[in-house]
Amino acid sequence: MATRTPSSRPASQKSGRSTKSAHSNASSRTTEETPLLSRSVHGDDDEAMAHSTQTTPLLRLSSPSSVPSNKKTSLLRKRWPSILALIILCSVFVTILFGFLATEEVEDYAKQAAGFKPTRLSLDSLTDTGVRVKVEGEFSMDASKVEKGSVRNIGRLGTWIARKVRAGATEVNVYVPEYGNMLLGTAKIPSITVDIRNGHRTEISFLSDLTPGSLEGIRNIANDWLEGRLRELRLKGKADVFLRSGLIGLGKQAVEHAVVLEGDEFPSLPHYNITRFNLREAKNGYTGIGADASLVVVNDYPVDLAIPPIAVDILVDNCMPSDPYIKVGTAESAPVHLEANTDLEVNVTGRVAELPDSFTRVCPDSVKSPLDTFLGNYMHGDDSTIYIHCCKFPDPETPQWTQDLLKDITVPVPFAGRDFGNMIKNFSFTDVQFHLPDLFAEPDSAEAQPKISALIKVDVGLPDEMNVPLDVDRVKADADVFYHKKKFGELHLDKWQKAHSSRVEGHDGEGPFLMVESAIRKAPLKITDDGVFNDVVQALIFGGSSLVLTVKAAVDVGVDTPIGKFAVREIPAEGIIPVKPIGHGGKGLGSHAPKIGGLTIIDTSPTSITLSALVNFTNPTKYSATVPYFNINILVNGTVLGQAIAEDIIVRPGNNTNMPVKVVWDPFTNSEKPGKEIGSELLSQYISGFNTSLTLQTHNNTIPAQPNLGFILSKLPVTLPTPHMRTPKSPDDSDGDDEPDNSTSPHFIQAATMHLLSSSAVFTLSSPLSSTTLYITYLNATSYYKTHPAGKILYDLPFAVPPGLSDSPRLPVDWSFGSVGYDAIKKALGGSLKLSAVAHVGIKVGEWNERVWYQGRSIGARIRL
After folding, report:
1. Category of 323 on φ-ψ map: left (φ > 0), alpha (ψ -120 to 50) or beta
2. Which end of the chain has less Cβ packing within 10 Å, N or C?
3. Please, are residues 35 and 3 in contact by the beta-carbon 8 Å criterion?
4. Strands 547-561 and 513-527
5. Which residues pair with 480 in a beta bridge?
6. Rounded to 5 degrees, what angle do the CA atoms 59, 63, 64 make?
């Protein structure tokens, strides 16, 4: 143990001191400033009996700032009497033995050559005023440690002449100058005789009564050290010692000795390992949670003493450092016997009756309580600090002075966190439902985010030592969603959701866990990476196999325990969500083409028709969705011709029947003249029975509150066969056959009757409209037999085509006399004939007018006179 001593000054300074002291009175008072505890004793080569002897410090001391995290604080408090005893005894032992040495050189020799190695300190008994301890050790002289040759030679000569020195019984007082010269304690030391010749060793054993001085002063020193304010401590020992060498009495010597402790010389808290820990319900009529622990404490000291039972309060930090600590429980140790240089096993029991409101209440200007902070640090493997408030002694035989000495001492102890790792074993979503934003939600607002409702299932692993009944009654979470390890979204469940849990015992070597279920409602999903989300949508629509989304979440759970209800926040969780794609084997949405029927025109303008329709379609996923508003463009060859609009519908897994959709057909407004031409061509091909297709593509206003989502989806246009217009089947009539039915392909002209004598024809027409009458305003048609013209109709008077099947008026026919076609008609008189027709037709519905062409094939025509 390094100390500040005059012996470490340069030789020139020593020489000056010797010259000055030569004029002093030999019997004057001697002041010793040698180290309290010498590091080692080495034999001198010139002495036949000398040999090298290494001594070690009795106390391994370090500053409070270096206290390790796994320390047992209560044991330190139990050791204060013994530490005090060692400091008092060892600080003055060497000094009182050499108080007789009057000359400067011999005094310096004694300071540097003397060494005392304590080998054992045991507690003999507790007294009403202090402790009685037994000290055992070895005293020796080592001249090789003396730096100056002349001092070494004179000292060896003097000690060889004196051979042995006897110190009479004395009382030693130890003071602390920086604390008002406070009396730290008093030691009564019996008469001791030692051999002071170089290389000689003297075994020493004696009993000493130690009495603490100012209890309040000792507590102040302890608190300053524990709180890191004590950087160094100077101790001063004083005694009046009567010395004798053989038959020669050397008189009474006033001995004074000082030592400075600093840096790593301060005592440190011992290391400990927890070998057993168990949480349970409180016993013996108490309420709350009890804890049992066994600790093995490392003991490197030659100390032997019996430690009585000790009870302490357990405190934790409050919201602010200036706030008083919060008491959360108590702990008590069983009586133990500490053996010298032997690790100590300590059994500790603790109890938490209930959690105080100040521990669970949210701190000002914060979203966390002291409990949240403490548990969060612990569960993430970060160190926290607990405080041990000392002390009570349940044993009535314990002297009162021990409680007076240790009361109101609060020891900060680093509390090592535990990284729970995969505490949540499973984290999954089922019964998922998506909610698109409302039409009038402001972009970037909370209402504009898509939302998810689902049943969350969480398996929370419990440590084996957790044997306390727990019930999870609420959950909330913040989750990041990943695809191929790339984050694309955040799921925020900020409000508590009701939950229920059940304990499941583990198997196959796994510990128990809590199975928690909670139905969440409308948790916002924020898209953070448009590119990755685009990949997800593309895989969802066109993928042939399931895609896997990864969810990493911080889950908050509200638990009901024997000590009350509280929340455990930010439990790390990770899970996967397998998503079945809409397209199977690369077929995309085309394999689930909708069936449209119940067309009703609800509005018209000169350029547009607004229709309502009932749609039957299949949702191939297991997810449902709520759609307040959805607008999608209808395109042909990249040209926008109209929009389909869905409002306030719920899409469920499987068949969805009679879903209301509004269609606005307005090619001119959307794409001007090119749009009008393409729209007319599409209608012409469609009513003629050609295979046509439509492309559905989102746009920035598909979901007005989420323009970015519409933009992303616009990169994934979906082309579908133009749906056959038929009245959708009810669920009771559905036969599950989704294959196209050719018989339902549009046939505007169902049949015809030709009258030869009157040169006229009547057509049976099928209107695709279910409740609105359309008008034919212009007709220029030619009929063919095979490829040969048979007759021509030119008619410009409007006539009505009501919903369903109807007959046209008699239309004048200009026969192609002499043609192959006309001859075939004459031959079929009284029967029927398959004819084809090509026509240009003007159509009017309300204010809307359009010119289309029509090609009819295999029209069954009856031939009459």
Report:
1. beta
2. C
3. yes
4. unpaired
5. 490, 552
6. 115
Report which of 365, 372, 301 is spatially closest to residue 338, judged by C-alpha positions.
301
14 touches 108 (CB < 8 A): yes
The predicted pLDDT at position 407 comes to: 76
Collapsed DSSP state (helix, strand, coil) of residue 246: coil
Sign of the torsion formed by the C-alpha atoms of 118, 76, 85 and 397: negative
Q: What is the predicted pLDDT for the residue at 550?
A: 87
Cβ atoms of residues 748 and 807 within 8 Å:
no
pLDDT at position 105: 67
How far is residue 205's CA from residue 182's CA, in Å, rounded to a whole number? Answer: 29
CA dist., res. 775 & res. 802, Å (int): 8
Contacts of 420 (CB under 8 A, 6+ apart): 379, 461, 571, 572
Q: Residue 810's pLDDT is what?
A: 92
In three-state secondary structure terms, 293 is strand
pLDDT at 90: 57
> What spatial distance separates the first Cα and last Cα of the chain, rounded to whole Å?
135
Taking the C-alpha atoms of residue 557 and residue 70, their distance in angstroms, rounded to an integer, is 29
Q: Give, as one character, the DSSP assignment of residue 826.
A: H
Cβ within 8 Å of residue 163, ≥6 positions away: 195, 196, 197, 245, 246
Maximum Cα–Cα distance across the chain = 171
Distance between CA atoms of residues 675 and 666, nearest Å: 9
User: How many C-beta neighbours within 10 Å does residue 36 have?
Assistant: 28
The residues with which 862 forms a beta bridge, in sequence order, are 753, 832
Helix (H) or strand (E) holding 104: helix 104-113
Please state, as a whole number, how many other Cβ atoms lie within 10 Å of the Cβ of residue 474. 19
Task: Please name the residue ranges forming H helices in 561-689.
Answer: 667-687
**Which residues make beta-bridge pairs with 705?**
none
Q: Are 791 and 782 in contact (CB under 8 A)?
A: yes
Domains of the chain (ranges, CATH numbers)? 28-265 (no CATH), 272-415 (no CATH), 431-577 (no CATH), 588-721 (2.60.40), 747-864 (2.60.40)
Looking at residue 35, its pLDDT comes to 33
- Long-range (24+ apart) CB contacts under 8 A made by 417-421 are 417/377, 417/378, 417/379, 417/380, 417/381, 417/382, 417/383, 417/384, 418/378, 418/379, 418/381, 419/379, 419/380, 419/381, 420/379, 420/461, 420/571, 420/572
Task: Decide if 147 contacts 112 (C-beta within 8 A).
Answer: yes
Let me know: does 784 contact 829? Beta carbons within 8 Å.
no
Determine contact, residues 157/95, Cβ cutoff 8 Å.
no
Q: Which residue has the tokens 């694309």?
A: 488
CA distances from residue 654 to 63, 416, 620, 626 in whole angstroms, order as listed: 71, 53, 6, 15
What does the pLDDT read at residue 588?
47
Tell which residue, 171, 173, 86, 71, has the closest CA to residue 137: 86
Q: Which amino acid is located at 142 in the chain?
A: D
Residue 672's pLDDT is: 93
Residues 6+ apart with CB under 8 A from 582: 540, 541, 588, 589, 592, 620, 621
CA triple 608-648-613, angle to 5 deg: 40
Q: Give the angle 513-515-521 at the CA atoms, nearest 5°.
A: 145
Residue 814, CB-side half-sphere exposure with 13 Å CA sphere = 7
∠ CA 285-290-293, nearest 5°, is 135
Enumerate residue ranges in the chain where pLDDT < 50: 1-81, 94-102, 584-590, 727-744
* Amino acid identity at 327: K
Q: Quick check: 338 and 304 in contact, CB under 8 A?
A: yes
Helix (H, G, I), strand (E, B) or coil at 95: helix
User: Where in 168-247 does DSSP place strands (E)?
Assistant: 170-176, 182-189, 192-195, 201-212, 232-245
pTM of the model: 0.54
Query: How much of the chain is helix, strand and coil, in % rounded to 5?
Result: 20, 50, 35
Under DSSP, the state recorded for 420 is -
Question: Contact 834/784 with Cβ under 8 angstroms?
Answer: no
